[in-house]
Amino acid sequence: MIRFKQVSKTYGENLALRQVNFEIKQGEFVYLIGPSGAGKSTIIKLLTREELATSGQVIIGNTDLSKLKAQHVYKLRRQLGIVNQQDVFLENRTVKENYQAVLGATGVAETEWLAKIKRTLDLVGLGTYLDAYPRQLSVGQKKRVAIGRAMLNRPKILLADEPTANLDPKTAIDIMRLFFRINRQQTTILMATHDSTIVNTFMRRVLELEEGKLIRDQAAGNYNVFGNPNDIYIL
Description:
This protein has seven helices and ten strands. It is α/β, with parallel strands linked by helices and 235 residues long. The strands form two sheets. A six-stranded mixed β-sheet has the order 6-7-8-3-9-10, sandwiched between helices. A hairpin with a 2-residue loop joins strand 4 and strand 5. It starts with a strand and ends in a 17-residue tail after the last strand.
């Protein structure tokens, strides 16, 4: 599903990634951890083809992203759902209208919009919030709407960048349960996080970066990823 083969990325003289190798299979849930500047955001940018690797191969499915023509990048991005740390909405539009904007931009037939929107809101547990405005939602509900927006076109891969940041512990756990529900539908999830409690509680495979190097690829098991419970990466 996702393969990094000897991937390096430089920005001027700064080496952001150093010969990174890993493979993520369809349906896996993988945490991507590491301190600020370790290369987590760079990996996500390479996967969305926002940027190209300096050397090596980034492959999704059977597609080598370095060989993907610019006019076909939109097809790649339709396979991806992206959840960012900050949830940005059209504040003067309802949840339904925010979703319609995404569906229109991705070329989905207008006759399919309402069914997709209702099905997605049911998935994220907000089936009755079709006509709600973002300002009427709690922080946790906004995160659910953002996850739903990423899932509108049922992507094969969901990329989540610090999705539990700034959430209280109960809300963070609820959001993780939603991610696992999505993952059980065979959606591959790569989640960048520095939340030690989440990683140590909901054990899944871990990829750890440090100064652009992949220093750990650890399967789910009985572990304490961050060692000391107080050893939390500050971003």
